[in-house]
Amino acid sequence: MKIKISTAGKLIKGSSSKAAKGFTLIELTIVLVLLGIMVTLTVPRVRHFILTDNLKATTRHLIGIIKNLRNEAYREYKEYTLHFDLEANQLWIDSEGMNLNDLENARKKIITIPEDVRVLDIWTPKKGKISTGQPGIRFFKRGYIQHSVIHLGSDDGRQYTLELSPFLSKITLHETYIEFETL
Predict the structure, then answer these.
(1) 3-state secondary structure of 65
(2) How far is CA 62 from CA 2, 10, 40, 44, 164, in A?
(3) What angle do CA 182, 121, 108 make, to 5 degrees?
(4) Gap between the Cα atoms of 6 and 10, Å rounded
C-alpha cells in the first residue's frame, strides 16, 4: 500500500493499480467512434479533391510521358518527338524512321487533355514561345531532351510551368507561370 500526501498536507491511503492509470472501455469506444466519424467525413472530400484536380493530374501524366519518352529514346537508341496540338488541346508521339502508316497509327493514339486544362504555350531555344499550331519537343538517342518549357493552365486561373532540362532527368515543376528568361 502506498501513502500519498495531498496538496492540503493530508495523508491519502491507496493502492496503485493498473486500472487507475489506463482508460476505460467506454472512453476508448467514444474516441474510436469520433475518429471514425471524422475519417468518414474527410476522406471522400480529400480523395475527390486529389483525383478530380485535372491540372495536377494532367501535369503528373505529362511528366510521366516525358520521363518514359526519355528512357525509351535512350533504350531504343531512336529519336522521339512529343507533338502538341495547342488548338485541339491534344498531344501525340512519333519517332524517327516511321513510315506513313506508322505515323497515321501514332496520330490515332492521340492523348486528349481535359477540357478545363490547356497547354498555354511551349518554349524552345530555337523557336521561342509558341502559343498556336503544333510545336514539338525532341527526345534524342543519347537520352537527353530538347531544352523546353511547357506552360499549363486551368479554367480556375491556376498555371503551372514545367521546365525540361536537356541533360538531367529532372523536370522542374513551378506552380505558377514563369517566363523562361527568368528561369
Answers:
(1) helix
(2) 69, 73, 32, 26, 11
(3) 145
(4) 5
- What does R_g of the chain's alpha carbons equal in angstroms? 29
Per the CB < 8 A criterion, the answer to whether 86 and 121 are in contact is yes
CATH class of the domain whose range is 54-182: alpha beta
How do the pLDDT tens digits run along the chain, 183 residues long?
555 555 555 555 555 555 567 889 999 999 999 999 888 887 776 665 666 688 898 999 999 999 999 999 989 899 999 999 999 999 989 888 888 887 777 777 888 999 999 999 999 888 889 999 999 999 998 888 888 999 999 998 999 999 998 887 788 999 999 887 654
Strands laid side by side in the 111-112 sheet: 111-112, 90-95, 80-85, 136-139
Retrieve residue 157's grid coordinates: 486561373
Gap between the Cα atoms of 176 and 183, Å rounded: 12
